[in-house]
What we know:
Elements: E1 2-6, E2 21-24, E3 29-36, E4 49-55, E5 67-71, E6 81-86, H1 88-91, E7 97-106, E8 109-121
Parallel strand pairs: 1-3, 2-8
Antiparallel strand pairs: 3-6, 4-5, 4-7, 7-8
Amino acid sequence: MILNLFLTQETLYPKEIKQDLTLRAKNNNTLDLWFFDEDDVVVNIAGSEIYFMVKDNPSQSDDDAKINKKITDLTDPTNGNAQIELSSSDTASLLNSYVYQIKIKYSSKWYTVSEGNITFKQNIITRES
């Protein structure tokens, strides 16, 4: 799944950051992130840290999150690209709707770049061979 995310120094919300996601539980999933500025120019995110968290509700503590990932090994940071890899074990027990948020620590500042509801659906075909 590709997410085009927008990052600016002036304001964080020139574009809508709310994005609802649907993924398959018990599968490997990749969220492919691309960062752009307000002029739709790729942002060099080298040296940044990306955080991805899934919770039952926004008030749940970070320690009790269903998924809590910190990504520092960015795919192609000079071209504004990073990936969040979710393994089948990350999503094995998730069959419901939750809330998620993606934040980036960029130039020593924190930015929320995407948030919303995330739903993990069960596979229909369970045959593997």
